[in-house]
């Protein structure tokens, strides 16, 4: 990574130059199967011909004017989204964090107009809503909040799924509470589903106390769970919903949708230079066209069931953890020799992914797990041999190094095995094979001169 960039990311040295459908190609022309989808963004695939055509055409017509003027593409997209969601108003942003920031601002204004001077928003433990100061305040977890101790207040946190805690909160602070902000599935904390009936109970609680139910659908929206919006599985309707990631197909687009009752912004209360500009909205319209095609959402459900079933088999065969999620937002608790966060393998392929592609991805994951198991066994064997060779100290006590080896937990042992395996001179090609899609000879690398 160049020294000119701030050290906010830890990217791999791997760099891609071309994408098509579910495939990516690096600078050397090697082909990869993309099971990340730009972190749940390229949901209809890389370089989708209709998105390419829409962006190219729009770039030749008009890129940007600002919201000082009416934008036809923005009005079309707002009309489509409100009709699909059953809501009445839309506001466009450039990222999911901005959309959530807008939702929090709208909730505060809603409370102020009800005469509540210090309104409170209820948020969930282990939630993640973004990295702005406001959304960070509504999020949980020391990793994202470290170094930002003095955050904006007026948030109350309760355990995700705990209705009794919400009832207790209502008795203590009911007169100040104006909204509940919740993810239908908590993505960043490990794809944690809301308990059965929880979202419906939240809807009832908000109705009884005139609170706004605000759903963060940045990860669950736009078809990822097999429904257009994740909350549809619960049979409810929110007052405010935020969308992002996949809605733009790769361009920076996000949206806040709201009911008429919750839409209390007036002129000048919110704005943004690039919000809903012609290019982004043109791409968003094409994404909705693709997801709205017959059988598209059914294919998400069917492919997700296949993926979940095969991950269950993989977990049972190798003694891994549980599989959680819905549709194509799934997680497997695992320790694999692939890059991961906290032992969690997240599987967010694009919704347009075919069954055959998922099967091929599963082969790669299974190969990786076999290599991890092999590495674990080899490393454990080497440790046993080292232990047998070490002479005992006077008095029969082991040396400090042996004591440390004897105290290794299984997780530490597995991670050490993977590191040892990665250092082995013969392991490079094998490990690359786990991450790199095997390419047949009749599918040569593409001509990189064409986009």
List the helices and strands and how they pair.
Elements: E1 16-20, E2 23-26, E3 31-33, H1 37-40, H2 49-61, H3 72-85, E4 89-93, H4 96-113, E5 120-124, H5 133-138, H6 142-145, E6 155-158, H7 163-173, E7 177-182, E8 185-186, E9 192-193, H8 198-209, E10 212-216, E11 240-243, E12 254-258, H9 278-291, H10 296-318, E13 323-326, E14 329-333, E15 344-347, H11 355-389, H12 400-406, H13 410-423, H14 428-435
Parallel strand pairs: 5-6, 5-7, 7-10, 10-11
Antiparallel strand pairs: 1-2, 2-3, 4-12, 8-9, 11-12, 13-14, 14-15
Helix pairs in contact: 2-9, 3-9, 10-11, 11-13, 11-14
Biggest sheet details: 7 strands, mixed
- What is the spatial order of strands in the main beta sheet? 4-12-11-10-7-5-6
Unreliable stretches covering 5 or more consecutive residues: 336-343, 398-451
Oligomer: single chain
Helix-strand string = EEEHHHEHEHHEHEEEHEEEHHEEEHHHH
List its salient traits:
seven-stranded mixed beta sheet; three-stranded antiparallel beta sheet; 15 strands; globular; disordered C terminus
Describe this structure in words.
This protein is an alpha/beta fold and 451 residues long. Helices cover 41% and strands 14% of the residues. The chain has helices at residues 37-40, 49-61, 72-85, 96-113, 133-138, 142-145, 163-173, 198-209, 278-291, 296-318, 355-389, 400-406, 410-423, 428-435; strands spanning 16-20, 23-26, 31-33, 89-93, 120-124, 155-158, 177-182, 185-186, 192-193, 212-216, 240-243, 254-258, 323-326, 329-333, 344-347. A seven-stranded mixed sheet has the order 4-12-11-10-7-5-6, sandwiched between helices. It has a three-stranded antiparallel sheet with strand order 1-2-3, with no helix packed on it. Strand 13 (323-326) and strand 14 (329-333) form a beta hairpin. It is globular and about 70 Å long. It starts with 15 loop residues before the first strand and ends in a 16-residue tail after the last helix.
